Amino acid sequence: xxxxxxLGHGYSAxxxxxxxxxxxxxxxxxxxxxxxxxxxxAGGIEPLLWPGDLGPALARASHILASAAxxxxxxxxxxxxGAELARADARWVGYLSTTGVYGDHAGGxxxxxxxxxxxxxxxxxxxxxxxxxxxxxxxxxxFRLAGIYGPGRGxxxxxxxxxxxxxxxxxQVFSRIHVADIAQVLEASMQHPEPGAIYNVCDDDPxxxxxxxxxxxxxxxxxxxxxxxxxxxxxTPMARSFYAESKRVRNDRIKARLGIALLHPDYRSGLRSLLxxxx
Length: 279
Prior knowledge:
By secondary structure, the chain is α/β, with parallel strands linked by helices. It has helices at residues 11-20, 34-42, 55-60, 76-86, 121-134, 156-161, 179-191, 209-220, 237-242, 252-258, 267-276; strands at residues 3-7, 26-31, 46-49, 63-66, 92-98, 109-110, 140-145, 147-149, 166-168, 176-178, 198-201, 227-229, 248-249.
């Protein structure tokens, strides 16, 4: 019986579950919310309220996916259940990290062998969490995700209602990934385990953020959102922190080792798909 224990069952893990459930998998997803637990159950997922007893779920799990964001103490599940997880008998373990671990490269290219030099607290916490998971000696696979978008997480609503702004910082580029491609990469890795492997999960076309909003407006038949210089833009501290780092992320490894053909190799393909799907 193939059973996935999803620790911190969020947006990316839900996309993976949509691929696995029709194949007869059992998916157990943790959540802190009773309301969310009811939603998961309605969608065919066994909910597990957390904090709670992971023991029975770990005993059943053939595969484990950890996607909870780390705090100052590192990974929240390892902080409370590290000893139990170290004894897990799963044949595949995945950890969802971020390309933020590479830090700023002034728009230059990085790959999985690039030294980790994060400049933000969030990136530093991810490096710490990666190392905590690596120290357990499990059949671990690390997935460093670029900026995630997909159904419900596209730019169209803000473009439509006129609140979108194209924040322009010369030389700034981001890599992105559609959530459907995250799910297919994870499934491919589960089918072809390579313990110790690290994969960048991103599309083929790093691009300035203002280009994405401009294309979204074009698809909607609307004028492009107004440009605002980065130094004059009103942003939350978290939003501004994303602009502290600029890099282009290579994805050759997911193609060479996992045979991935991206469903959405660039943001144009992804946005067209979202609009066609009613986003």
